[in-house]
């Protein structure tokens, strides 16, 4: 059974306008998307800007409410669940965004940022939490003594490592990466991608990986789904991608 099975996912956004902010239209951002993702597998999601990649990713995590369709995690459809019923599933699904600076609280130390999910879910406090955070820092190639530093004291690549450590903190089954290296210098991109690949080998979670750079996507993905106007128009195996450049 796949870890994630998405069936006929639809997301329509209401567009409001005019003086009274009435609904003046609908954007069919995602229009019947289906795919499956195995444990330890990476599915790349590519397509031109506006084709619906982020909406698919955010809907799968229920950060955006689906209009219709099923989102099965380990066979359980999480699409109709209430926020409360969803809580246990939230722990197993994490997201890493494009801009690591924007998603880090500038007033929190890196250690507190990485440890925050542990606190929120009541999993560790005090010395036990510090120990776990130090371990996460090492896993992503940061030094434990950097835990006391603030986001602005890190480089762009290091900030993305902080985001990755936070995403790993609860032992996720699925990590959604929404353009995780697009904001980084080209020289740093490969380091972060290789870290992501290495972490998956050791911890066996799955990635749904969005990027516009096909070279990046093809390197990390086992299969690549191509989106066009809200639909998946092709799912190609990695071998096929390299055979047909
Ligand atoms: P991509 O990630 O491929 O660039 P998105 O999922 O961000 O695509 O957007 C798909 C479509 O949905 C675009 O036309 C976009 O403008 C629209 N869209 C995204 N978010 C919203 C929103 N909150 N309200 C209205 N339209 C939106
Ligand atoms: P990206 O495609 O990289 O996700 P966007 O600039 O398309 O970035 O979207 C940034 C944010 O704005 C997202 O949260 C998205 O949902 C929202 N958004 C995008 N398009 C629209 C839109 N037409 N109306 C309202 N919100 C939108």
From TrEMBL:
GO terms for biological process: peptide transport; transmembrane transport. It is a peripheral membrane protein. One of its GO terms (molecular function) is ATP hydrolysis activity. Residues 4-245 form the ABC transporter domain. Keywords: ATP-binding, Hydrolase, Nucleotide-binding, Transport. It comes from the Bacteria. Its main location: membrane. Its EC number is 3.6.3.-. GO terms for cellular component: plasma membrane. It is found in: Cell inner membrane. Belongs to the ABC transporter superfamily. Involved in beta-(1-->2)glucan export. Transmembrane domains (TMD) form a pore in the inner membrane and the ATP-binding domain (NBD) is responsible for energy generation. This is Glutathione import ATP-binding protein GsiA. The lineage of its organism: Bacteria, Pseudomonadati, Pseudomonadota, Alphaproteobacteria, Hyphomicrobiales. The gene is gsiA_7. The chain holds residues 5 to 249 of 332 of the full protein.
